Amino acid sequence: MTVLAVQPGETPADEEPPDTGERHRLTALAGFAALSLDAMASVAYGPEAIVLVLAAAGAHGLGFTLPVTLAIAALLAVLVASYRQVIAAFPDGGGSYAVAKTHLGARTSLVAAGSLVLDYVLNVAVAVTAGVAALTSAFPSLYGERVWLCLAVLTLVTAVNLRGIAESARVFIVPTVVFIGSIFVLIVIGLFRDAPVNRVNSESVVTGNVTSVGVLLLLKAFASGCSALTGVEAIANAVPSFRAPRVKRAQRAEVALGAVLGVMLIGLSVLISRFHLQPVQGVTVLAQLADASLGHNWAFYVIQFATMILLALSANTSFGGLPVLLKLLARDNYLPHVFALKADRQVHRHGVLALAAVSAALLVFSGGDTNTLVPLFAIGVFVGFTVAQVGMVRHWRGERGTGWRGKALLNGFGAVLTGVAAVVVTASKFDDGAWLIVITLPLLVLAFETVHRAYAHIGERLGLGRIPEPPHRDRSVVIVPVSSLSRLTSEALTAAASLGDEVRAVTVCYPDPEDRANLHALERAWAQWDPGVPLVQLACERRSLGRPIAAYVRDVSATEPDTRVTVLIAEVEPVRLWQRLLQNQRGAVVAHAVRRDTDAVICRLRFRLF
Amino acid sequence: MTVLAVQPGETPADEEPPDTGERHRLTALAGFAALSLDAMASVAYGPEAIVLVLAAAGAHGLGFTLPVTLAIAALLAVLVASYRQVIAAFPDGGGSYAVAKTHLGARTSLVAAGSLVLDYVLNVAVAVTAGVAALTSAFPSLYGERVWLCLAVLTLVTAVNLRGIAESARVFIVPTVVFIGSIFVLIVIGLFRDAPVNRVNSESVVTGNVTSVGVLLLLKAFASGCSALTGVEAIANAVPSFRAPRVKRAQRAEVALGAVLGVMLIGLSVLISRFHLQPVQGVTVLAQLADASLGHNWAFYVIQFATMILLALSANTSFGGLPVLLKLLARDNYLPHVFALKADRQVHRHGVLALAAVSAALLVFSGGDTNTLVPLFAIGVFVGFTVAQVGMVRHWRGERGTGWRGKALLNGFGAVLTGVAAVVVTASKFDDGAWLIVITLPLLVLAFETVHRAYAHIGERLGLGRIPEPPHRDRSVVIVPVSSLSRLTSEALTAAASLGDEVRAVTVCYPDPEDRANLHALERAWAQWDPGVPLVQLACERRSLGRPIAAYVRDVSATEPDTRVTVLIAEVEPVRLWQRLLQNQRGAVVAHAVRRDTDAVICRLRFRLF
């Protein structure tokens, strides 16, 4: 799933040169290989999701694997045709959020955006669990440790993203090609066999308590299997990454993606039926197929490794894609602008860590089980599909070009299918976690709208878009809080003298004898030093440092009009980090009080000590 | 345990008027009542600690309760005599830390200080668990919830201290007098009875597997029982709180404390022997005594409540005492100066919360059981006693006044007894938690010394104690980072013009087309506005905001000598807290980079939006 793919050249890390020139852009073939990663990865869990639902009706139910897969392939064809149209209509990319923003209004586009955010998060969890399932299918002794393995893979992906690697779409080509090649070999060889080479000697998880196959079961199998369709929209989102003529090349890549994915899904499902495979605890359906078709030899391990690497890369794309989406939302004032800040790695890191934390929670919540997460994942994806296609119907109705009715019908049909799938998955998995999505999605939309209103209010107050009044110059008084005499004091007064028309040092004095003694010592030293700056004493009965200074600042502001009051706080900054604990925090206390109680500008001078 | 008692008038809260005048100071009687709280409170757990050890040798062992108590009373006499001498020698108070600093060198004084810190922390935990034990003895149905009750009491004490109540030593007088009175009534009535009125119908926790009473068992019982002596030193630490003649009055109060405590301990132990009491799960020995002596009536409940309140107040004294000790250590440069900051409640709150958190951890660790914590508590107390008395031996040897040999002998004898007690408790309880103290104490001393060395280094660099060079005035250039045009920009330039001889607005520009368009819009608006300030464009290939600005600042500092460069960062500050999330953090990013890479003064102007 890469609803908003990382565009080649546009990297999540902050310090890469921007995309320049046509040379780096993608041909149809390269684009297909680079952008189909997520769609291909879903082959690893899509067929399994179907088999798992049908297994509830025993062997009879499993017989419906192929028909259900054919229905999904039909939906795939509709979606691919639909997204060909999206590519033509939205050559700047942007996916369902862009379509909905143009044709369905702000709120619907926010629903699409919210579902995309959820998908990015769930994609990480699903891809990691499925990747680990591929690994534990090859090495069953690791099955008990799967949650830890998932967290380890997540940590690895997170670490790589924290480092901010310069990732290029081309990196994805090799594993994608290896994976597709392996699956095709698997399918072809399997078709020539009458019986499986190997059969997994584990207990089947078929419960078999349902023997009649109802419509609802088939619908559920269909809806679960639709998770195999995630990633179909990736190419439509990345049209600007293609070489000119962009639309043509992107459309060709989209069709190629649909064809390859469809063949793989149907091929695998034929083999599942032929070898009478059943869901087995601890061994994925794909691993069983590899075993059955190729035998338990090096080829089996190649497929498992290729699957695992592809899935890890698929998880990685979320880390690239989510920031791009959040940036779009922030630019439209639906998220704090910090997400649109195109600079300085720190912000990016927070995003990576937040995504990793939520994904880790999902991994633990699911116990490392892909099949718990897939339905949740599917809900968001289908909501996005549905919104995009309803938007396209509006698009065609508005445009009324040649054959618009046919195009609108196609998109409308797709919308109905994916909408039904969304409802079926949500209803059937409500108790198993789908409630989480049902609660979270509206909350996200609400948050987006609240942020948007707040920005509108702030922009109004700031007079954004109007020329502000011209700046002027005020008399400047710089107030320097002082408590003892040292090189720091000298530095502070030099800085203050350079900034202000007038400088006043202030010190807070308390009535207690020890403090009074300190004050007298300071007064004597001050007189001896004679810096040409008055030392104002602020008597304070209560033991407070910040308040008397803030009160003095307020007082100066009130009694001396047209005066700009600045408080200059000088602090020692030791070079070693731990030594910063030794700072007395007077500066922080004063800054806090002045900031809270006054409008004065606060200057902080840090005096570096080696 | 109040090794450094809260002196009446000197309060932990930061905003109280300081102590003034003799009128508020204590007479001998008031001082005794006010400062004996902790010592009296230890009656609630001291005798129990003896009985619990001796119970290992069955009824035969319990027969040694009185002899062991008499030995402890003898030690009490030695300690009281010793502290009378400390009062005379150190009329300014300060306790074992002060004695050790004067006579035993810095490191030993730090050992004393470290053990005091541990004692303050453990005192909270011990007093709370013992207080709750008094409560659950009265209401046995609450026994299962004791950990939660302990945490509730701790929360209450913490909340009261966070509010920063103006506590006065006089507040302590009433509960102390009620408690002492009740215990005396209990003892006197008990002495007139031949058999207990009531006997608790619970199972004895006597294991009875040891039947011979060895020297080691007696030593252990002695060492455990010595926990009853905690608090004896409180008066010696608070001599300045007494009315003149201070030393005489304080000495009289100390002797009174010793006498009352000794009579209580011996009286209770006579009753324990007479009634053949045994340690019982869930009912404290003191509660059993009340039951036996007074019967299970209102008098019993009065004693339990008085005990509980006294213990809660005893826990409360740590919250007052620890900050005073930390302040002393911070003044001597052994702790970060923030602990000596006599102002602004925030700092005090951190201390209260830290103490509460560590105490809560100890409560949970001990499972709310006083007898797990008492030995740990005793170690620190005895280390303090021993250090103080060894210091006093040195004191007399140095002074060589009349009868110095006798005085030195007395203190030396006390030092040996308490030193042996410390070793016995540590060895016998090593596996049960004493290892924690053995590890923590040296670490504390190490931390104190490390901080001290760092301050010496910083003071040297700062030229503390020398008159610094006079301040001068430099040309001032104020740099204002700008990204768009609004009322905020106008405010920023006004502030900058007031502060600087020259103002330059800077904006970072990136090569990407969208950014370039934004830049052109800004340039046009700037030209139209014409603020009289140049807009410097900092081209940056990489997506970084802070670095180009920091590089420009460095560049200006390097090429324009005798110029003080100031970076003025203007930020919007919405009034609602949550809206602060909407800030784009550009200011923080720029401030971070400038602070890291340059020595420029950073000014932050916050533009309040309503």
TrEMBL record, chains A, B:
Pfam hit, one: AA_permease_2
Membrane topology label: Multi-pass membrane protein
Membrane-crossing segments per the record: 26-45, 51-80, 110-134, 146-164, 171-192, 212-235, 255-278, 298-326, 347-367, 373-396, 408-427, 433-451
InterPro entries: AA/rel_permease1 (IPR002293), APC_K+_Transporter (IPR053153)
Region (Disordered): 1-22
The keyword Transmembrane is assigned to this record: yes
Chief location: membrane
Presence of the UniProt keyword Cytoplasm in the record: no
Protein name: APC family permease
Organism of derivation: Streptomyces prunicolor
Organism ancestry: Bacteria, Bacillati, Actinomycetota, Actinomycetes, Kitasatosporales
